[in-house]
Amino acid sequence: MALPVRHSVAGPAIRRTDPSSRKITYMSDLRPETRSVHHPRPVLDQSHPVVTPLYQTASFVFADPDEFAVGMTEPDGAYVYSRLGNPTVRALEDAVARLEGGVAGHATASGMGAVSTVLLGLLGAGDHMIAQSTLYGGTATLLADLTKRFGVSVTYVPENDPDAVRAAVTPATRLLYLETIANPMTQVADLPAMSAAAREHGLLTVVDNTFASPVLCRPLEHGADISLHSTSKYLGGHTDVIGGIAVFADGDVYRRVWAFGQELGATPDPFAAWLVLRGMRTLALRVERSCANAAVLAERLAAHPAVAAVHWPGLPGHPSREIADRVLSGFGGVLGFDLAGGSAAASAFLSKVRLALVAASLGGVETLLSMPTAASHRGMSDEELTRAGIAPGTVRVATGIEHVEDLWADFAQALDALDY
């Protein structure tokens, strides 16, 4: 007996909503702590799901071939293929865009995916850019590669010197690249002054806001054009996902980068986006606790005889303290400290801690330790490390949400065991 043929009946295609084509007013009057909890959710008949659903699908079915064609080329077309757009990924993009005060977000498969998509999408062969001199090691390596492969020249300037930006501008200059809080020495960029100098010359300002998160700083409010995040860090918050995102103040710039992003293919998996959305619901609480823990550890480390210096913008003597007071609403959960015994002491310290974990990344619920010379900045020369202020005995601390007295007890026993 022949089986009946089952015909697929496709209703109206699920459409992407291009945030850059409309002004986002939803929850715009609410504080970041509230926005991080309440994300955009789809309407299902007469109800909404409490949690954004996971659309774990590669493709979407169409009844209208014309609508299919539009969805292949436009960010506000129907969902066609998850490399071009996915409802769960779009929910993440909208949620972070609203946190940052932007018109649109573009999610990627990693933080470096966001950096690469933006820079490659905006720069061409022979262009020039300006960047602050203290950068994440992965970004510094990417810029060196852009110079070698495509002739993109880079001028490095201090993160707090707008006159240096003005002096560095050439007819080929396209953008200024900054980090809200630098890794790992925690210099804070003077975003208002630096962005203003860039704007005077028609430059875009791109800011890596990962270390601050939208809870502590929203660069677009200080004049930046694009704010980047590794969503693996504070936004995801549980050290279980890799992702990135770029948020845009201008819809035309967003569409330009979106078009290149589809060619590059640095697209996040829907499940990764869903994990970040889940983590964001506790973002404000985690950041608050992390900052509080960092404050206690920074003060106590500064008083310990084995420690030569502590780098955290909340300390009175930190060179960025005045800028941090103006730009940040908290001093961050990452700090660096230099051990008097150099690299041998740093290695010994990491081998003696029992509670804190020696691991890459930051922004999770657990406290993580690393040596920048062997981890985040391992690809930099001795000269570049010196210019960045990173010593052989520098240890980076990314605080979690543990009880701070338990953390300090762990740090103290490891420090006391050193030969200083």
From TrEMBL:
EC number: 4.4.1.2
The keyword Magnesium is assigned to this record: no
MF-aspect GO terms: cystathionine gamma-lyase activity; homocysteine desulfhydrase activity; methionine gamma-lyase activity; pyridoxal phosphate binding
Reactions performed catalytically: L-methionine + H2O = methanethiol + 2-oxobutanoate + NH4(+); L-homocysteine + H2O = 2-oxobutanoate + hydrogen sulfide + NH4(+) + H(+)
Coiled-coil region: none
Pfam families registered for this protein in UniProt: Cys_Met_Meta_PP
Source organism: Sinosporangium siamense
CDD domains reported in the protein's UniProt record: CGS_like
Transmembrane segments: none
Top EC group: lyase
A cellular component term, taken from the record's GO annotations: cytoplasm
N6-(pyridoxal phosphate)lysine, modified sites: K233
Cofactor(s) it depends on: pyridoxal 5'-phosphate
The keyword Calcium belongs to this UniProt entry's keyword annotation: no
Family, similarity comment: Belongs to the trans-sulfuration enzymes family.
Keywords for this protein: Pyridoxal phosphate
InterPro entries found in the cross-reference section: Cys/Met-Metab_PyrdxlP-dep_enz, PyrdxlP-dep_Trfase, PyrdxlP-dep_Trfase_major, PyrdxlP-dep_Trfase_small
Protein name as annotated: homocysteine desulfhydrase
